[in-house]
Request: fold
Amino acid sequence: MLESEFMRLAFASGAIVGMLAPAVGFFLVQRRESLIGDGIGHVAFAGVALGYLLDVSPVATALVAAVAGGVTIEVLRSRRLAASDQALALVFYTGIAAGVVLISLAGALNVDLFSFLFGSILTTTRTDLAVVAALGLTGLAVVAVLYRALAAVVIDEEASRVAGVPIAALNVAIAVLAAVTVAVSMRIVGILLIAALMVMPVIAATRVAWSMRSTMLIAIGLGLASVLVGLSIAYYGDLPPGGTIVLTAAGGFVLASAVGAVRG
Amino acid sequence: MPLAVELRDVAFGYARGRPVLEGVTLAVERGEFVAIAGPNGGGKTTLMRIVLGLERPGAGEALLLGEPAHAFSRRVELGYLAQRSQLVIDAPTTVREVVAAGRVARRGLLGRAGRDDRAAVAEAIARVGLAAQADVPLRRLSGGQQQRAFIAKALAGEPSLLVLDEPTTGVDVEAQEALAALLEELHRALDVTILYVSHEFGAVERFVDRLVLVRGGIVFDGPPGQLPGMWHDPSHAHA
Reply:
């Protein structure tokens, strides 16, 4: 399997996304914002469409659109202009509607577009890998550096605010991290499934973990394992990689729940 | 040396609503243990939020350790126990992790936890009597123990002013008594200024230096012993 360069590239880029998605998703799940990745994903879809319309890199325009969408959700929520679920719905539906209109204008309803929607990890190029590595490893480094502050906010946001922790900046940081994760993961599992990789390993980890830190580390391990195992199954079973990876993550949840139930 | 808290003729009201507070003047010395009580809707939580700089008064002036409260520059000196402090996250979080969150403001966003941080966390956990449960997930502890963990979190930041908002909500009378005794012990040992904000004050009546009753304004401010009988909290027989 690893004799083919396209599989080596797929495993390398998948491994980075497999670690980044749950590392960022961990904080979204704790804040009861599990579906925010979905909302940002749909804005990223509009970004991809804009890229086709302007004839520039769809990944670049998706990244810009995703960051704008993530920050918009955070601004609407934090300034109480809309409740969290309403902010998500506004951005979610505006994103998908803009995407449909822009795709129509660009005349780009083609196979390449579907590779963004459903993932196309097997077509990863060396340039794609370089982009995923640069953005993904930067995202992981930011999570590592800000971990204590982000953890303090999800544990007790009000007391952190009183003590002078810059809550607004940290919330924007999480929104931007989520957007970057969506943008770099589009080619791996697809826009429609990226939120699953941000959330499912985290939910599974809570079933077996014994502390906050262990939850984060187990979630990262499960995300990585889901990508590597899912990709291998897809290769040997001739299955679509994106869906197989997410189904493997779902299997990880079932397994973790069983282990958690046995341990009591 | 400036007062811990000073309110000068403070008024506050929400847009298109009747005033919540009017003509509030209050001075809290450093090291005092003060209970701020009153009925629900009487304005005590608003008063507390003004003190913490989370709301700006519509009129008057609010000072915190000598600085305008809304622009207070030394927020690391504030310890705060929010109402119904409990974990709302799914990840199993240990007492030590919860308490360590109280050190973040002092260490800064990018700072790594050092030996002194770990020592401060361990000391705070020991002070509230949870040393044996330090590495136990919080959700496995009783409501009273969880409350103690959050008090330890506030203490870990080594505050000079500790503000507790309705700390006895959802806690049984026995745990309320234990909490009050713990606060008295911390007050004596750490010389920290404590504002205890609650609609119930019976548990701490024996321990506080002053009792401030709020109902749209301050209707009583003095030692608990001088409180007219009709205002005593009937939920605690010893009062």
